[in-house]
């Protein structure tokens, strides 16, 4: 009896021992931490370079910590970038809100008010995601010139809203598909119309989808460079990404200012993710599980 | 309050050959509680959804009150509907759920509040008014769904299997409450279910549907006593009616029903006239389990008996189900526990003459 029971008990202990702090787990943790640090190296360089004196910046010492901390580069970056930062906000806020709203409306119709050919239309819309910006740049700019929106934030907003429609439509359509059809039928019998149901029933239920689409669009539009560069010609009115690029002059580059500018430019998207990240993951999973 | 008329209504989906609803014509009276019953896929829900306007009518007319509603959107039909899933608005409190249809109809705020309270009182959900649906039990949600219908002052209540998500005990209780509610508000109600017990206990009249076709529309008692065809006979009643194919034979002026390889049974004289035309042919004999009586327990002298063998006995305490066989025919009998029989025992069973049903096997129609 004992000879049979002992090895079994032994295995059990070995297994439970492996789960906590065993040699395998320590190795795994060390490896994963190492990989994480490796991935964070560029961030490290950006941050330490941004607080170095100009004289301290060189390729030879780029990995070394600064001898003294100087915030001057931030002041400098802020002075030259703040108009563009404001410009980016003026672009990204309306563009995100509008593309989310239109995506929600599209997704609502394509999931709950299907009509003949609506699935084909949806597939065709998704193709929009795969058209590279460069391919349509010249006709796009010609078009904006024709309608008088070239060289304006409004034009840039419209371009981003339209370019965002495929992905926002996709996310909202999949989200709304999970909302039971009986809810819409109940509202119809109760006396609501197509738009009434959208605003009173669907929108209040789609906060998670709005968070996902919001973060996604905010980040994409904030980081976009090509449209910002080509649709707006006046450097003072170009978005932050373009201005950041302009910060590095043609002959010499003030690395600490550029790095400080990068940090400034990256802050809004990082903040959005830190604040709404929990909802982002929850929203991505919404509909995939019940309950 | 309103009547509803189906006038030659068809519902076809796409190009599929069999319509979901075929040539449906019936009138549902004002204040009536009508139950649409049938197995799943029989078209009962489709018929109801066409009244609500959630499905288009392919052909024919639907009339609510005096209006042909074929082309009216749901919101203009003034009907209220209770869904199987309850379909409560999850982001609204119970109060807002009840008030929503009133708000959409531009009812003034004070009047709205009065009616919400009245409905909540009637359904005893007053104490939940400020909760959201997810904080309610199934039974409470069900009441809110009913409340949303009651609050509206609609011409018509449509209920699509409203009890099927409740547990058995609550279902029976709510069934009685729904009947009381109908007695009180008197609104014409159309109720869809697949459960024949629900249909029998609740309906003023019952419309039995199968494969998109209305089989019979009558009172519960008439459906039970005089089923129009084999489908209705088999659908109403539990356990369901026994069916045996028999040959009608004439011997010295008397009619006999013979089950090949099984029993030979004299046909009651009162049934002879209508069955005479089937002489030499096969018909389907139907007997309900509760009408089969062991010969010695039958009061008086039976006109006809069936010799059978006891196969299986299920004792339930208040009654027993006895499975009998006679050649290739298998019958279920529902008897009082006082009837003592044993497995393998040969007994004779009988029934009152008018409790034998006969169906034309070609059309399945009852032979009167």
TrEMBL record, chain B:
GO terms for biological process: carbohydrate transport. It comes from the Bacteria. Transmembrane segments: none annotated. Keywords: ATP-binding, Nucleotide-binding, Transport. The keyword Transport applies. Residues 4-236 form the ABC transporter domain. SUPFAM superfamilies: MOP-like (SSF50331), P-loop containing nucleoside triphosphate hydrolases (SSF52540). SMART domains: AAA. GO terms for cellular component: ATP-binding cassette (ABC) transporter complex, substrate-binding subunit-containing. PROSITE patterns: ABC_TRANSPORTER_1 (PS00211), ABC_TRANSPORTER_2 (PS50893). GO terms for molecular function: ABC-type transporter activity; ATP binding; ATP hydrolysis activity. This is ABC transporter domain-containing protein. It comes from uncultured Thermomicrobiales bacterium. The lineage of its organism: Bacteria, Pseudomonadati, Thermomicrobiota, Thermomicrobia, Thermomicrobiales.
């Amino acid at each position: 009896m004992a000879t049979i029971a002992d090895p079994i008990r032994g295995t059990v202990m070995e297994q439970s021992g492996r789960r906590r702090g065993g040699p395998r787990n320590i190795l795994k943790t060390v490896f994963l931490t190492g990989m994480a640090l490796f991935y964070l190296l560029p961030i490290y360089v950006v941050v330490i370079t941004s607080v170095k004196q100009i004289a301290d910046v060189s390729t030879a010492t780029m990995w070394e910590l600064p001898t003294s901390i100087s915030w001057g580069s931030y002041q400098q970056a802020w002075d030259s970038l703040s108009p563009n930062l404001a410009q980016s906000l003026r672009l990204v806020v309306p563009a995100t809100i509008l593309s989310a709203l239109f995506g929600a409306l599209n997704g609502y119709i394509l999931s709950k008010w299907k009509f003949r050919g609506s699935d084909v239309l949806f597939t065709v819309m998704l193709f929009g995601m795969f058209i590279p910006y460069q391919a349509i740049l010249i006709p796009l700019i010609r078009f904006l010139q024709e309608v008088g929106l070239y060289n304006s934030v409004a034009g840039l907003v419209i371009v981003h809203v339209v370019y965002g429609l495929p992905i926002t439509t996709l996310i909202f359509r999949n989200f709304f598909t999970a909302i039971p059809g009986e809810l819409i039928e109940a509202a119809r019998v109760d006396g609501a119309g197509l738009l009434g149901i959208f605003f009173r029933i669907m929108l209040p239920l789609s906060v998670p989808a709005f968070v996902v689409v919001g973060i996604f669009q905010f980040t994409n539009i904030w980081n976009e460079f090509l449209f910002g560069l080509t649709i707006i010609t006046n450097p003072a009115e170009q978005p932050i990404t373009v201005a950041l690029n302009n910060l590095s002059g043609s002959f010499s580059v003030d690395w600490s200012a550029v790095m400080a500018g990068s940090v400034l430019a990256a802050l809004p998207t990082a903040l959005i993710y830190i604040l709404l990240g929990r909802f982002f993951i929850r929203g991505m999973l919404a509909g995939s599980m019940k309950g | 309050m309103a009547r509803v008329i189906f006038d030659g209504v068809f519902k076809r989906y796409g190009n599929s050959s069999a319509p979901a609803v075929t040539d449906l014509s019936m009138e549902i009276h004002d204040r009536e509680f009508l139950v649409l019953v049938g197995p799943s896929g029989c078209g009962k829900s489709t018929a109801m959804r066409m009244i609500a306007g959630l499905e288009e009518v392919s052909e024919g007319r639907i009339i609510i009150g005096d209006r042909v509603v074929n082309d009216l959107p749901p919101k203009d039909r003034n009907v209220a509907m209770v869904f199987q899933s309850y379909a409560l608005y999850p982001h609204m409190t119970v109060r807002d759920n009840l008030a929503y249809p009133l708000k959409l109809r531009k009812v003034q705020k004070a009047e709205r509040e009065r009616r919400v309270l009245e409905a909540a009182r009637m359904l005893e959900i007053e104490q939940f008014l400020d909760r959201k649906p997810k904080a309610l039990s199934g039974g409470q949600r069900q009441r809110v769904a009913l409340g949303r219908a009651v609050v509206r002052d609609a011409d018509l209540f449509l209920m699509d299997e409203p009890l099927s998500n409740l547990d058995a005990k609550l279902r029976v209780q709510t069934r009685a409450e729904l009947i009381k509610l109908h007695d009180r508000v008197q609104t014409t109600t159309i109720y869809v279910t697949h459960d024949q017990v629900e249909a029998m206990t609740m309906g003023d009249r019952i419309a039995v549907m199968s494969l998109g076709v209305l089989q019979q529309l009558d009172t519960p008692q008439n459906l039970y006593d005089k089923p129009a065809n084999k489908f209705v006979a088999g659908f109403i009643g539990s356990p369901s009616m026994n069916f045996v194919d028999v040959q009608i034979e004439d011997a010295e002026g008397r009619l006999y029903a013979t089950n090949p390889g099984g029993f030979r049974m004299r046909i009651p004289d009162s049934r002879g006239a209508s069955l005479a035309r089937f002489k030499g042919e096969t018909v389907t004999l139907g007997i309900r389990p509760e009408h089969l009586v062991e010969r010695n327990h039958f009061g008086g002298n039976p006109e006809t008996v069936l010799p059978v063998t006891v196969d299986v006995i299920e004792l339930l305490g208040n009654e027993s189900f006895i499975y009998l066989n006679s050649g290739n025919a298998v019958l279920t009998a529902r008897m009082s526990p006082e009837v003592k029989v044993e497995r393998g025992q040969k007994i004779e069973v009988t029934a009152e003459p008018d409790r034998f049903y006969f169906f034309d096997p070609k059309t399945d129609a009852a032979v009167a």
